[in-house]
Protein: Protein kinase domain-containing protein
Amino acid sequence: MAGPKYPKIVGFELVEQIGGGGFATVFRAVNVAQHRVAACKLIMFTEETTEKERKTFDKEMRIHTALKHENVLEFMNAVIVELKHKLIYIPGIYMLLELASGGDLFDKIAANVGVSEEVAHLYFNQLIAGMHYIHEQGVCHRDLKPENLLLDAAGTLKITDFGLSAVFRLKESGKTRMLTERCGSLPYVAPELNSDRPYHAEPIDVWGVGVILFTLLAGNTPWDEPSAKSAEFRRYVSGEIFSEDPWCRIPYEAMSLIKGMLTVDPEKRLTLRDVFQHSWVMRPSQLASSRNPAELAMRLTQNLRENGDLGLAAPNFTGKSDDAMDVDGPSAHKSQFTQSLMLFSQTQHGSRYTPNLTRFYSSLGPSLLIALIKEYLEQPDVGVKCKLGAEPIVNERGIEVYRMRIGGWDARKQMFKGWVDVEKFAYRGEEGAFCLMRRDEGSPISWRQLWKAIILSPAVEPHVLRK
Ligand SMILES: Nc1ncnc2c1ncn2[C@@H]1O[C@H](COP(=O)(O)OP(=O)(O)O)[C@@H](O)[C@H]1O
Ligand SMILES: [Mg+2]
Structure:
């Protein structure tokens, strides 16, 4: 007898996993009859799920459903399968969300380089527009970080993941409360969360927004954590850090805004209202007014192009991709933006959509390539844990792939997990391979750094195909 299945959610079927964090697994979902795609975030229930956990999942759903804004990922529908139905369906909360076809914003950003001021300005403005709306609804996000900032098919920023959010102001009475839970990831968390006193909600998100602006412009977060344990944070507080790279590279006006948002005392920190009136935010934007998705994609990935990362991810040696067969089913993600971003890669079986730029081609066959990658990652000084089956598997698309689970800790002491998939790819009549790295937990920036380190490792490097 077949085991329990995923239910259909208003006609949408779960197709393949595209992400997953602590509690959740995210799938691409397809409504075949209506030719529509979506994402489905599943939080599974087990016998061990506590009442308290159930309440937080319900809260995420309730809060996210109520938020409707251009820069907030759209919540479309939800289905709850209770444990008593576990013989038929996999129990859990199924949240049907708009599919962020452009993938993660920070997957497109060169590590330790960042993006131009123009691009940072555009996305920063979208971020604060979304955050202003969220706060206006009385909600505090509390988990702002690159992993939770996605792009839609037109390249518009979408804030998502309300798993740690909280209502701090009641809409009816206007009554505001202070919050008490300690939460969020250390590199993005505000310093007042180090103490166990209650804290004001809004300044927490302003701090997170400040760290994100720095990360856009510098290509990395400013510190591991905002406490005396971090040497960088100590040098920030003392002011020594401003003469060091990357701080000294950030233009004066943007720096003044960052310092205002990253003010240690929450009472003196800029409010979102102040941020909107800051001269760096108010400056006119050519990029915003031109509304040209192809140009936006070019500008966003300019530094990836310049440092060669884009040439590795999308060598484009196979000629025009437009002619290739699309093996991807209904493709609502085919837009000028996603095409210019080169989110479609050539495989043995035609053109394949993937929201990630962490991929490359090699002149070695799959079994050899995956073995070399594993050997590199397992070196003591790299220290990534790998789990690889002896045989290739047949994936969701019916294609044979070597699939390896990997996980470890990044330079900012954050955990990451993901998959390395290697499939066959004929290159000039010889057997080569296509390697795709899919992250499901951790920072997209460190994921990109790991991808680059694999490509540059001595055993792999000679076999990598470039533009
Ligand atoms: N609507 C979506 N479209 C595309 N990718 C998504 C979508 N929602 C989530 N993801 C991917 O899945 C990851 C985890 O989703 P998220 O909602 O942040 O779950 P968690 O609560 O486990 O962190 C995201 O970082 C992102 O890469
Ligand atoms: Mg998340």
Notes: Residues 319-327 have pLDDT under 50 and may be disordered. The longest helix spans residues 117-136. The first strand starts at residue 13 and ends at 20. Residues 21, 147-148, 161 surround magnesium ion (ligand 2) (CB under 6 Å).
